[in-house]
Amino acid sequence: MFLLRLIIPDRPGSLGTVATALGEVNADIHAIEIVEHRRENGTAVDDIVVDLPQGVLPDRLVSACNSVPDVEVIWFSRYGAGGGLHMDLEAVEQMTSVPAEAVDILVEQAPAVLHADWAALLDGTGSEIKVALETSATPEFGQLVDQWLPLEKATTLVAPDHKGLAESVLVAAPLESNRRVLVIGRRGGPEFLGSEVARLSYLASLAVTIRATA
């Protein structure tokens, strides 16, 4: 499974042309997600999750996209988070089904929702700051666990020069208080866009609201 992040012309037919090009190299499209509309220059940023049959080189995905006029590949990597289209809605559905665990569910689902590699809930509401919950592949924070607290609103973070974190791009949002923070990381990129920060902010607020109904 691979993730392609593309800049494409924001006009009818562009995405279909890309899908046709990927089909010509036998790529099986699992999900397409419009990440951001850039109306100032008439383009859009799209994530496409695809699978390749055995024996087909991954580089052919990039070549296929680059063969389409005015399409630019800005990120390409293996994609192991699962997920796909409508992950936001699926996460909300899970949260509403078990309101008391809404925050925990958001932490667990965040990597799939945002096409990331890991997520961790940092809790500084007690006498010491700790990692209250984390997904698999979350790096060790060590003494850096407190550097992002308090956090007032969802935002991207500057990755520290620390083993396991230096190669990640980071985004975070407060949950319930500015000392309870969800941190999400992608190894190597791509950078989190403003629209993704807004989505995380919305989901974090929704998780807190749903939990309050329990």
TrEMBL record:
Q: What lineage is this protein's organism placed in? A: Bacteria, Bacillati, Actinomycetota, Actinomycetes, Propionibacteriales
Q: Pfam families in the record, alphabetically?
A: ACT
Q: Which superkingdom, per the lineage?
A: Bacteria
Output this protein's name.
Answer: ACT domain-containing protein
Annotated source species:
Kribbella orskensis
| ACT domain ranges (all copies) | 3-76
Q: Which InterPro entries match?
A: ACT-like_dom_sf, ACT_dom
